[in-house]
Amino acid sequence: MTHDGTLASPDATVPVPVHGEGAMERRKQIMKFLFRYRHSGVFSGLGQDSLLDDVIIDDGTPAEFSRDLEALGPTFIKLGQMLSTRPDIVPPSYATALERMQEDVSPVPVEAIREALEADLGVRLSKVFIEFDPVPLGTASLAQVHRAVLRDGTPVAVKVQKPGVAQRLLSDLSMLRSIAGAADKLTKVGRNLRFTDWLEEFGRTLVAELDYVAEAENLERFASHLKAYPELMVPRPVWDLTRRRVLTMELVDGVRVDQVPAVRRIEQPMLPLSSALLRGYLDQIFIFGEIHADPHPGNLRVTPDNRLAIFDLGMVANVPPGQRECLLKLLFAAVDGRGESVAREMLALGTQLEDFDGERFSREIGQLISRYSAHSGTTSEGRVVLDLVRTAMASGLRTPPELSLLGKALLNLDTVCRALSPELDAKAVVEGHLQHVMRARLRQSFSSPNMASELMDLQSLAREGPRKLSDILGLLSENKLQIRISGLEESHLMESLQKIANRVAAGVVTAALILASALMMRIPTASTLFGYPTVALILFFIGAALGASIVISALLGDRKVKSR
């Protein structure tokens, strides 16, 4: 935040206003969209807003939802792409519409692109390029790509961030945070899903996607990880001409995977490419712990030498080792048709909400996996994972976003593989390669660094174990051993005990008041009310009121425990 109340952009060159007439108009535009689709199941439960008192809005269809989201600009196009990976938030019909969301938009004039390039590179374009094509190869919401030729004759692709897009993103994110905070406090779906946490994760991913240096590092890392698959290739970045808002990489010619001519399919079989792509991505996820959630046909090209080129690695999520192991076990159990194991791994991954129904969860997960096993030839593994997420949320289990990203990645891979080679048996490839992944993970666990770490832990246990055991026995012999359990003060048990104590105390006070008033009734006094001693009658009324309140509270507030 700058001194004049504006939000600094990532490059700290242009301040972004977060208040004023323009911000109010933008907020009204966003809220109008939210309230139009308030009954869609995506944003259910949001209250009214004074900005929209004079607006009459009807619900739209999923296709209109996707179109209106695109009209709100780059932030919401990216938001729609991320929402399409969350079946626990978005109803199936809306998720399908969001999956088809296109990023093709009108290009920025080449003069503005040239100015941005020269400002970021610090030199005139003629100093580094002998040719720069003014017509972009592709245009998306955040950037556009131009073909260029270096001074040494090397053809390259130059990805340039559109001027002003980072400022708009940060301004929109600031408004969305305030809306998400209100939804978390005021709605049940917000308390369950925690929109604020999800939006923070989305914001971090989006800001990371604006950093093209990080994308260049992803390109190099993926190229290194996929060396074992000669059928796949990743363009290398040109580091001397790469900045936060500019990415220069080698130019790769090719045809989109869904536009390969039939004649070429006959001359050059595509089955090895699709199989290598599926196996390479499984390695990326479960061995190297990185999920590229966007391997759609637009990001993949078949090159003239019959290799598969992978582009656009800006959106990559990292998976910690422990979570990676749970995801691997879950997918292995799903492919193997073991519903109980799938339910067990999902419980280990997820967070149980207050209304979690364990019996329903286990039953529906088992039925889902049984259906998948019966129709394994026609059901995608990615669709099964997304259905698992949706079923878990319906039963009161909140799953981590990495599980949804895994499902989305597998679903996109299935689409690409079917476009390349419809004859591919994806389940057989996944099942066979998961065993390879298991062996690779076992080899990693027996690597020198891991073995050294385990030996150090054993050495520490052998050195400190006897002393700690002696300390415990000493405390026991002196009757000084204390066990402290944290978290009870915030638990439902303590809340219930406090309610019981309050009821008992109120009951004792009520009985004392009524007993005291009964005894005082026999004492003659000068002050009477309705023929009874005034003080005694007042005490009786107070006691009667307290007793009535206890009974009413018990009848209205207490609930029966659901039978399980």
Keywords:
564 residues; 57% helix; alpha+beta; disordered N terminus; 5-stranded antiparallel sheet; 4-stranded mixed sheet
Hey, roughly how much beta strand do the residues contain? 5-15%
Based on CA atoms alone, the radius of gyration comes out at 32 Å
Number of helices: 21
**Low-confidence region ranges:** 1-19, 44-58
Distance between the termini: 53 Å
Strand elements, count: 17
Mean pLDDT: 78
Please outline the helices and strands.
Elements: E1 6-8, E2 15-17, H1 21-36, H2 62-71, H3 74-83, H4 92-99, H5 110-121, H6 125-128, E3 129-132, E4 138-139, E5 143-150, E6 155-161, H7 165-186, H8 188-193, H9 195-209, H10 212-225, E7 232-233, E8 246-250, E9 255-256, H11 262-267, H12 271-286, E10 290-292, E11 300-302, E12 308-310, E13 316-318, H13 321-336, H14 339-349, E14 351-352, H15 358-374, H16 381-394, E15 397-398, H17 401-420, H18 426-445, H19 448-477, H20 492-520, E16 528-529, E17 532-533, H21 534-557
Parallel strand pairs: 7-12
Antiparallel strand pairs: 1-2, 3-5, 4-5, 5-6, 6-8, 9-11, 10-13, 11-12, 14-15, 16-17
Protein model, in words:
This protein is α+β, with helices and mostly antiparallel strands and 564 residues long. The chain is 57% helix and 10% strand. Among the domains are: 256-446, no CATH class; 449-478; 501-557. The protein has helices at residues 21-36, 62-71, 74-83, 92-99, 110-121, 125-128, 165-186, 188-193, 195-209, 212-225, 262-267, 271-286, 321-336, 339-349, 358-374, 381-394, 401-420, 426-445, 448-477, 492-520, 534-557, and strands at residues 6-8, 15-17, 129-132, 138-139, 143-150, 155-161, 232-233, 246-250, 255-256, 290-292, 300-302, 308-310, 316-318, 351-352, 397-398, 528-529, 532-533. Strand 16 and strand 17 (532-533) form a beta hairpin. The longest helix has 30 residues, at 448-477. The radius of gyration is 32 Å and the shape is elongated. The model is unreliable at 1-19 and 44-58 (pLDDT under 50).
